[in-house]
Each structure stands twice: as structure tokens, then as C-alpha cells.
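If you are new to this repository, start here. Below is one unmodified record pulled from the training split, so you can see the exact layout before writing a loader.
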Amino acid sequence: FLMNEEEIRWIVDNLFIGNKLARGEVKTAVPGAYVDLKAVRTPVIIFSSKGDNITPPQQALNWISDVYSSTAEIKALGQVIVGLLNEDVGHLGIFVSVKVAQKEHTEIIEALDFVEMLRPGLYVMELEETAGKGKDRYLSSFHEVRLEDLRKLNRLERKDEKPFEAVEDVSLMNEKLYSLFGRPLVRSMVNETTAQMGRTLHPLRMQHWFFSDLNPLMWPVKAMAPSVRQNRKPASNDNAFRKLEDAWSQVITGSLNFYRDMRDAATESAFFEIYGSMVASGVAGETKPGLQPAVADMRELPYVKEALAAIDQGGYPEAIARISALLGRFASSIPLSRLETIQDYVRNDEVLSKISENEMRRLKSEAGVLALLEPQRTMEALPHLLADKKDRQRALSLLEWALSLKDVAPLQISFANSLIELIKGAAPAEAAEKPGREKKEKISAAPPRPKKNRRELRKH
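And here is the target side for that same chain:
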């Protein structure tokens, strides 16, 4: 696959220089329109590795902090972002490693069918190895985190990114110099024939065809291969040459790892020495702020204001979405099997099964914001949303069903029981207090203490 000049320039100018994609500065084919990552409505799965020295986890995740101002905004926009972290695989290994394909790739593909059932927010995907085989070897679960906590992981508060402003200026200058002087010279020396020779003789291609049947020197190897394959006998573990091979392999591996670490450290040091000094001397110009700096009050966001204004509006679908969001605050982790069970429940529900995908996303977004910022008011509004007796019975049935699931957190069970008491005891016809009637104790949306419940937790 060959890219033309226009495609290469677009990638370099918009993605590699200036981080324009995260800043919302990438133009589309429509005049005056720009690519807005906030407009993405399908779940986003980010797979990164601590062993990746080209795109480390911090770089792979920082765009979230650039695009979104807060956790509330992620929820208000109905976005689901899932991060999966590998401990040691390298940059290319993320894509081509067999172990990664058998583990992370398999689990990501399996999760695609159910990740839509997650409430809007930011999640970490965790994989637990079991005694099973194939698809059953790993158990996937999702743990919700906050964007505000993610920002705290940047110990340097991303001040180490400032030298890249100098890199951007230098890159733009080099690109102009090449366009003026280098490009005309190269075009005068290169034609289609020399270009094809350059591609064929490229070292990465040569190492493949040099050791193939295209090279006459390799023809005897093809003739000897069947005989060698047929008479091959594995050496025993105590074979002296095998032990020497293992020892030498470890020496080579250690040497290459040492070289890599020293090379990366030297490169990083030289980078900050060169471009850091340029920033200190003012060569890089003015600092470019991120697209979305953190806001002081999340309630000032327009999406959040709209959700808060509708806290007492809606019916059965809104009530179910808010019950789910309220209970979700106390969830430790969400197994993938739980999402599959929830999906089946929604499909079989008389009302929820008729809601469109966009409407379902809106309900989850609104409920997530309300449960995050106003959990007490959200809980107190539930009886108003469930004014119809049939809707109340459906909601109570859902809560009873939720209590029957395996591995429900103790705080979730206690809070679910509180919601059952609230819905049963605050029916519209009975809510008005009669003269002389004793006022009921107010139920709080704060984390309840675990207590004995009508249903016991099931164990694996």
C-alpha cells in the first residue's frame, strides 16, 4: 500500500505536528467543519502497554484530559471510554504478539458486543486468568474511574510536554525548508523506476526476499528442508549444548534490553537538553493551551445544566436509568457476564426493549450526571417518576432481580433495599401525610452500612 503526497502531508500536519486532532483543529471535507472527538458516540477502547516506549500509557490516555473537562462531561455526552493496560509488551507487540492476541485481543473482541451496556463514564478493563481454556481462560471486568483522578497520575502536570512546542516550530521550519530546496532536488533525481528500486532494495524488504526462493543461494535449503524436518529430534533438557544455548540466549536478551534502555535514556536526555533549552530561551513562543482545561464547577457545563433541570421529569425509563446509575456508585467492578445478563434483561423488558439506541444513550447520560452531582435529589425524585402503579411494580421487580445476581457488592444490596423501601412507601396516593400520621424517616443517598438483607450474596 502506497500513500500519495497529500495523504502523507495530512497525517504529518494534523496528527504528528501540533496534536491538532485532540485540539479540534482538523478540518473535514465539509467547508468550515472540524473533527470533534466529543461527537464520537460509539465506545472507545484504548489498549496501551507499560513496555511501549513509543506510545506510553500516559500519552495514550492524555487525549482524554485534553478533550473532556471532567467526568461529568464524559457522562453528559454519553461516552464510554475503556482503558486496557498491558504490563510489558512493546509497541509492535501490541499488534502482532501471539500472547497478546490470545489474551487482550480476544477479550476486547468479546467485550465489543456488551460494552454498550456500560453506563457512560471512564473505565479500566481488568483481565483475570482462570483454569479455563480458549475464550474461557480469562474473565473480563470493568472498574469505573474518574477523570480527575487520572489527571493526578501526571506527577509533572504535563510540564514535560512543553518542549514539544519547540519541536512543532522546528518541524514547521524544516518542512518549509524541504519544500523550497529539498523537494525540487529529489523530484529531479527520482522517477518511477528508481522509486521501485528503492522500495525493492529497502533493508526491511531485502531481509525477506534475500532468504527466500528468489535468491538462488537458498535453493539447496529448500531441497534439504524435508529431510531435516523428518529426522529432527529434540535434545534433552540436560544436554550441554541446550544449556549453553539457553544461557547465551539470556545473555543476548539482557544485552539488547540494556542497550535499549541506555539508548532511550540518552535520547530522552538529549531531547530535553536541546528542546528544553529552546523553551527556556523563549524560542518556542507562546504556550498553546489544551482543548479543554479543567473547569472549576462542573455544574456550569451546558450539558450538566440541562440534566439538572430535568431531575424531576420523566417516567419509567428515566427512573430505571437513574436507579442503575445510583447503584453503580457502589459497584466495585462489573464482570463482562453481568453486562450480558443486563443486555438480555433489557431485550425482554416490555418498555426498555422499545427504546432506540440514541434515546437509551441519552437516558444513561442524564442519569450518570444526576447520580454523580445530585444523588440525594435524584433518589427523592424516583417516586414522582414512578407515579403509575404498573411502573412501580416493574421497578420493584427489577430491583428484586438485581439483588438475585451473583457478586453484588454489599453496599449495592443495602442501597437497593433502601430504594425498595422508598418506592413502596412513597406511592403518590399515600405520599401526602395525613393529620396525626407519623412522618417517615428520611432515606439518605449516602453510602449505607452493610446489613442483613433479604437475599444473601451468592459465591462463585
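Two things worth knowing about this chain: Residues 240-280 form the longest helix (41 residues). The first strand starts at residue 44 and ends at 49.
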